[in-house]
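cron nightly-structures :: item 1 of 1
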Amino acid sequence: MSRLLSHCFLLAVVTGGCWLPSCGIPSRDGHAAESADAKFSTLLEEIWQSDLREDPLFATSTGDHRYNDRLPTVSLADSERRHKQRAEFMTRLEKEIDREQLSPSQRVNYHILRRQLGQDLIEFDFQSYLIPITQREGFHIEFPELPQDVPLKTTADFENYAARLRAFSAYTDGHIELMRAGITAGQTLSAVVLEGWEKPIEAQIVKRPSLSLLYQPCKKFPSTIRESEHQRLEAEIGAAIAESVVPAYRRFRKFMVEEYVPEARGSVGASALPRGRDFYRHRVRRFTTLDVTPEEIHQIGLTEVERIRAEMDDIISRVEFEGDFAAFTKFLREDPQFYAETEEELLQVVSFALKKMDGKLPSLFGNLPRMPYGLKPVPDYIAPRTTSAYYQRPSGDGTKAGFFNMNTYNLKNRPLFTVEALSFHEAVPGHHLQIALQQEIESLPNFRRYSGFTAFVEGWALYAERLGLEAGFYQDPYSDFGRLTMEIWRACRLVVDTGIHYFGWTRAQAITYMTDNSALSDHNIRAEVDRYISWPGQALAYKMGELKIRELRRLAEQRLGERFDLRAFHDMILGSGAVPLDVLEANAEDWLDQQ
């Protein structure tokens, strides 16, 4: 979920109002603005249609089903072609569109589009496309979930599905081509994060098509499919799995064994990549959407860790535990009372917390999304290598809800005292509430409705964890300690991510720092550190985004005093969708001026 912006004129239009920056808007001829807006809208639509054609899977997720029989084309030539296309769009944006003639809402869209295109161009220049997978994400891990991501109600849907299975062979070969070029260019994953890479791949190399996760739609056809079609569709899908999918996974496994893993780099930090320190400085700006340095981020992290640790120590004193922080976290990691005995028990505890929060939402928000959310376990084939939970957004056509995916693998590493904070982050009032609302803002252009900025999206979700306090949760001191554990985890990321990628930390140093300053399980800490190693900069977004939202709330409370309305403040924050943090700050300033 995320991306994109550069410093210039800032303002934002949100549902129910428009906030104008204090510098004011130059007077414009109404007809000129209308003409400029129309020209810009045409360019926006052209870029949007290009994005849908280039990524048919994304198109399907937005509710556009014109390309349901295709997968993206992947190759070095395709990467170069897309880069040239983005560069052309940037040139047209800057030369053909007069920003000063645009209406306020379109100026914001211009600002965000320019940043998005610019970030895409920079990423290509650093050759990040040559590392298209991580140990927990990538085409090979995501593809088996295709049945959950596409419509499967009509005969045509099943035929399109089979076509995508057949296209997987070329899709795989294209990724191999990129990764092979990455080896030559010195752009590879770190060897330390590749432990267990085989499992997600080998799970798809089945002896019979009927054993594949991708065969599941054939095991129970919907009533909308005529019975006379069942056998033909089963044969078509089975053949595609046997002739395209399974051989492709075999080729990918062979490539990994013989070529990629032996050549994976021994270093862990991005600084070791070609132009690595410049690349990481870019990633810091990209993921935080702020003009900050790795040094500044590192110091902010140290300060936040110290603050949160003091609050955690206070809880340890309150429960009258005899022992230091390390002894208390060892107690939390090992005492059976803090862990579910079955997958069902864990999911029930999560469900209960969320149902209680559902009832509290109207006291926190004036606007709530129409789209509901569901809860399901993380698929077995990726559970050992992924994080505690993640969220999948609703489909753009309204046919699929949002989903909170809870990891039920290895229950002794899924503490119950973090359930409230984790649930509020992933579902409501966190990711689901924010993302579903964004997709329902009809005034936003499509490129904003279906994309976002990690600093905003993850910053909001971390802020949402704290909202549980105001809604009456975390009454149990251990649950409150769990909330702080989740918060200090994100603060530790500021220290650890910069430590690994900029200051030369080893994996062991990062693990030790996380162990010393949080109650996360050993399994989760290792999985998290490996995630930071393989995804430079992304982990910085959470805490930096949350700090900005909390800063804006303090400002609003101070300036408005008794007139401060929490529901109105939240509606303002979420009303423009996910935006860069500098745009969010301008939104808040303009809203306060209007109040």
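cron nightly-structures :: done
Residues 1-27 have pLDDT under 50 and may be disordered.
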